[in-house]
UniProtKB/TrEMBL annotation:
This is phosphoserine phosphatase. Gene3D superfamilies: HAD superfamily/HAD-like. PROSITE patterns: TAT (PS51318). Keywords: Amino-acid biosynthesis, Hydrolase, Magnesium, Metal-binding, Serine biosynthesis, Signal. Pfam families: HAD. Pathway: Amino-acid biosynthesis; L-serine biosynthesis; L-serine from 3-phospho-D-glycerate: step 3/3. Residues 388-426 are annotated as: Disordered. Its EC number is 3.1.3.3. It catalyses: O-phospho-D-serine + H2O = D-serine + phosphate; O-phospho-L-serine + H2O = L-serine + phosphate. InterPro entries: HAD-like_SerB, HAD-like_sf, HAD_sf, TAT_signal. Residues 390-400 have a biased composition (Polar residues). It comes from Streptomyces racemochromogenes. Belongs to the HAD-like hydrolase superfamily. SerB family. Its cofactor is Mg(2+).
Length: 426
């Protein structure tokens, strides 16, 4: 027979056990939910402590951190050419167009760029106009079209004619590069879908070609291969998995970058390239505008300060002249990655971390090595890295290029001059 006191003890113990079981049962979903959120981990292959710095970014701003700043998705923006891939997909496309005769002859070459000089327009007309009627593709992939291919390639690749005359004049060096813009302008007459098919064909060829391969373009040779950087694809994938909103900003044509970006897991609606205006579904030789710049003005592409405008407009929904200005920190990307002076402005706008792939570009490397706010990290190129620059970057004298093309000192936000910097990451 159980004594009353013993029975009460047993009843109390049973109640406590039941309460503990209930507590464990209630806690289980929370614990399961906690364990279900796993912060992505970056793969190896980075220079110095860059992997750790990037991982800290993911840990702090990723969706598994309940204390991450802000409620919106953190934004990350990557340049494309020589940042996510080795070599230039715009170049790859231009070379494919010339080899396959896909550039349509304009009625007047001066209409292909507001910045084209009379000397360049005449050189192009002389080399190309006898080969086709206006609006028809030029046979630049044939022996008889080789001189035309050479002239187009010279203007595009060197901003000069084959005889060395300047091909472009009068542009704002902080908002547009006429040679970059000329490629999408030469795509006039094709639909965006057709351009994507050209880019896909070029992509297949360049990925299949061995590293270091060259191809025949006109009477000369050009780079014939492209590779994705495994580390950058892994970074993009892990940022996306951690809840970042990942975008591409490139000074290659919009349909071209859309095709290539798919290979890094970035959808077309998160690509900002140079964008043509269209007429009857076909591309024109004019470009879409940004900020206070109207469509067809052809003065503001995804280039230096133009990248800020396009990111503010397309990512953050800012319209009008305000898109050209620095936005409040909460309305900017937390992370940015680039490789060239063309990327300086949108990299500076990043609030948490800025990744620079070192290609020995003066203004960019001056700012990255100066690292005045501790948010810059530098990585050598992942394939065929450049050797150490043997002389300091001329930050204190000519590292900056002003709007009119005049060289000037590189200045910090407080206007102090950045001293010359030694190349240390290579």
């Amino acid at each position: 027979m159980t004594r009353p006191r013993t029975r009460r003890r047993l009843q109390a113990a049973g109640a406590a056990a039941a309460m503990a079981a209930a507590t464990l049962t209630a806690a289980a979903p929370a614990q399961a939910a906690h364990h279900a959120c796993t912060t992505p981990q970056l793969a190896a292959g980075w220079y110095g402590d860059n992997q750790a710095r990037l991982q800290q970014l993911i840990d702090r701003y990723g969706s598994c951190n309940p204390h991450r700043p802000g409620s919106d998705k953190p934004v990350a923006v990557f340049d494309w050419d020589n940042t996510v891939v080795k070599n230039d997909v715009g170049d790859a496309t231009m070379f494919w167009l010339l080899r396959n005769g896909k550039i349509r002859r304009p009625a007047d070459w001066k209409t292909t760029s507001r910045y084209l000089t009379p000397a360049a327009a005449q050189a192009l007309a002389t080399a190309c106009d006898p080969l086709a009627r206006p609006g028809s593709p030029l046979p630049t992939g044939t022996p008889e079209g080789a001189a035309c291919a050479d002239e187009i390639n010279a203007v595009y690749g060197t901003a000069a004619t084959r005889t060395g005359a300047p091909a472009f004049t009068g542009w704002d060096h902080r908002t547009i590069e006429p040679a970059y813009a000329w490629l999408p302008q030469l795509l006039q007459g094709w639909t965006p879908g057709q351009v994507r098919s050209f880019a896909a064909a070029a992509r297949t060829e360049n990925l299949a070609a061995p590293v270091g391969a060259e191809q025949r373009v006109g009477t000369g040779t050009a780079t014939g291969w492209v590779r994705y950087y495994d580390q950058q694809r892994d970074l993009i994938k892990n940022l996306q998995s951690a809840g970042f909103d990942v975008w591409i900003s490139s000074a290659s044509p919009q349909p071209v970058v859309e095709v290539w970006a798919q290979g890094a897991g970035v959808a077309a609606d998160h690509v900002i390239g140079i964008r043509n205006t269209t007429r009857d579904g076909k591309l024109t030789a004019h470009l879409q505008g940004c900020g206070s710049v109207a469509d067809g003005a052809d003065t503001m592409i995804t280039y230096v300060d133009g990248k800020r405008c396009w990111i503010n407009q397309e990512v953050f929904g800012v319209r009008g002249a305000a898109a050209e200005k620095v936005r409040p920190a909460a309305r900017r990307q937390v992370f940015a990655a680039g490789d060239s002076d063309t990327d300086v402005t949108f990299l500076r706008d990043a609030t948490a971390l800025r990744l620079v792939v070192n290609r020995n570009k003066n203004e960019l490397m001056c700012r990255a090595y100066d690292n005045s706010d501790g948010k810059w990290i530098v990585n050598p190129m992942f394939i065929q890295p450049k050797k150490q620059k043997t002389t300091p970057y001329p930050c204190s004298t000519t590292g900056y290029t002003d709007h009119d093309g005049t060289p000037a000192p590189v200045r910090r936000a407080d206007t102090s001059v950045v001293p010359d910097q030694t190349d240390t990451v290579y």
